[in-house]
Amino acid sequence: MRSVIAILRRFVASTLLVSIGLLIFNFILLGTLVFKEMNQSQSPEGVLKKVASKLDKTGSGYVLEESGSNLLRENDAWAMLLDGNGDVIWDSGLPGEIPRSYSLTDIAKLSRYYLLDYPVYTWEKDEGLLVMGYPKWSYGKYQFQFLYDWGRSLPLRLTVLLLLNVAVALLISIVIGMRMMRGIRPLVEGVHGLARDEEVKLDTAKGLFGDLAGSINSASSMLQSRTAALKMRDEARSNWIAGISHDIRTPLSMVLGYSSELEENASLPEEQREQAAIIRRQGEKLRSLISDLNLVSMLEYEMQPLHLKPLRLAALSRQAVAELLNNRLAERYQIDLELKEVAVQINGDEKLLSRAIGNLLQNSVRHNPDGCRIAVETFLSEDRSRYAVRIRDNGKGIPEEQLADVTELPYSSKRKKPASNGHGLGLPMVSKIAQVHHGQLLLERSAAEGGLSATLLFPVFDQQSNNKTGSERADRPVF
Amino acid sequence: MKDKKILIVDDEPDIRVMIERFLRKEGFFRIYTAGDCSSALAAIGASKPDIAILDVMLPDGDGFSLLSSIRTMSTLPVLFLSARGEDEDRLLGLGLGADDYIVKPFLPRELLLRLTAILKRVYASPVNNRLTSFRLGDSVIDLDSAVVRWDQAELPLTAKEHAILTKLYENRDRIVTTDALCQAAWGDDSYGYENSLMVHIRRIREKVEQDPSGPIHLLTVRGLGYKLVTKENP
């Protein structure tokens, strides 16, 4: 809408500029082209004045000097001098049809208009009247007269005229502009709609811009169908993974069930019970893989419902460490806990965050089977806008060049090397969980101890903006 | 306990057979099975089982609607055993009044533990039901009447002490974080009660420990929380 008004304003301004420019241009043209002819040669009055000055009175009459007769010849004109009685007392080149004597009325007429269609000009010479005639149809003579008041108010009237012109130009340009805008506005709105990824349906039937509207419509429908196809494909993929993991669960139940039964069967030899235990443990690995895979795919395609609520990461970290210790963590692992600013809350899904922290802890344990020291820290970032959990170990870590790689899904195009240890879904899952919380996962090789340092950063929950956050994606359908 | 009638509803015959085997091995002998909703309802009508293990995906409907139909005729406890692990399903199942929800794949031991827990809760005689009374060294802590009994004396527990001790007992021999204890005692949004918690823990120790400053049952796990050790001679 704003852009439409801006276009209209610019259009009107440029119309005004064009009309003012045109006016000035016209004045210049008027001066140079039209009135140029008028002063092309000497004006009749000028010629007459010169001729009069060249006419000398001698004893016997009047004699025109050479230059004077030349001037008359050049202009193809004739001249005569009338005395006080209206009689011709001197002439030069006078056509035969011109009378030799004039009454007062004749003089009055010829001084204003024509003498037998010859345009004539008069000049007072001594006691008489010098009359100069040009050839027929060479000059037009018009009377020009006006009231004195009219002449005085002429500048004002001209100004009013100009203003009226400007007003009319403005009005016309606005009307035309509005009409054009009415045509353009739906198009502009349509293009904005395209940018917002909305469905656009413009009227293509009327207006100058019918075909343009058609193009916008087809662009919109193309975009819409692509978005829909993309969404469908994502859904299909996620559903496919959910379906596969569902189908794996039942047979896996049997594997777990019977292997653990064999494992507990006291009548079996020790070796076979140990083998059954291996089957059971591998089955449990498969179970955790399936649940990770499911969660990662839900997160990847944004289908995981989030149950957001303000919670304290420090408490979650404590819980995760307690969980690890409760599950009989071996003595060779040592856990140091350092929680700062424990009161700070972030807005998050408790289950997902617990899973992320637990996963990072499990990583440190799993990848360092010979034991290590694990440091768990929580703290506020320096600008106090983010809260962090850092899980640091002094184990073997991840080589520097693979750090960027390990948060990508295994076998995806972004990941260059396949996962070397474990199924490789853990860190991508943690990274995804951080992402859906508008946070991030930073992996570093800790300089001092050489192990891995994983930091989860989340925006601090702001009490004021509490109301609008809530669970924006919680009501999405789940498949 | 072992004579309770158990109904297993699952569309996979293999799963039915497997669960039945486990249960029989554990001593249960009155076991009924059904492969779909209609035969499950028929079985409930005919043999009046004491507990049902339901699959969520059944050929003629889902387990949730089956549970709703069961509820119209019986209040028997129900345990869902589902291949759908999504939280929504879990909440839906529990919201409908199921007693527990287990996600496949499961370990038989896990199923058995949860099943017996439900059976105990629902069918145990009132006397046995008062198992929330346990020995701690030389003292006996009775959570039902909120007292600690020594040979000579009987020390009452306050409400907060009782809540904290109950939480610790539910997770006995495991670390319970201070956050979880605060929540148990003061409810949600209980941040800031850490110091009060310490005071209450000290008072509990005075009641249950022989030497409150050298505790052997209610241990502090530095930085994390507390742990109630009920086993003798750790």
Automatic annotation (TrEMBL), chain A:
One of its GO terms (molecular function) is phosphorelay sensor kinase activity. It is a multi-pass membrane protein. It catalyses: ATP + protein L-histidine = ADP + protein N-phospho-L-histidine. Residues 243-462 form the Histidine kinase domain. Its EC number is 2.7.13.3. Keywords: ATP-binding, Cell membrane, Kinase, Membrane, Nucleotide-binding, Phosphoprotein, Transferase, Transmembrane, Transmembrane helix, Two-component regulatory system, Virulence. It holds the Pfam family HisKA. The keyword ATP-binding applies. It is found in: Cell membrane. The chain crosses the membrane at residues 12-35, 154-176. GO terms for cellular component: plasma membrane. InterPro entries: 2C_sensor_his_kinase, HATPase_C_sf, HATPase_dom, His_kinase_dom, HisK_dim/P_dom, HisK_dim/P_sf, Sig_transdc_His_kin-like_C. SMART domains: HATPase_c, HisKA. It is an enzyme of class 2 (transferase). Its main location: membrane. It comes from the Bacteria. PANTHER family: SENSOR PROTEIN CREC. This is histidine kinase. It comes from Paenibacillus oryzae.
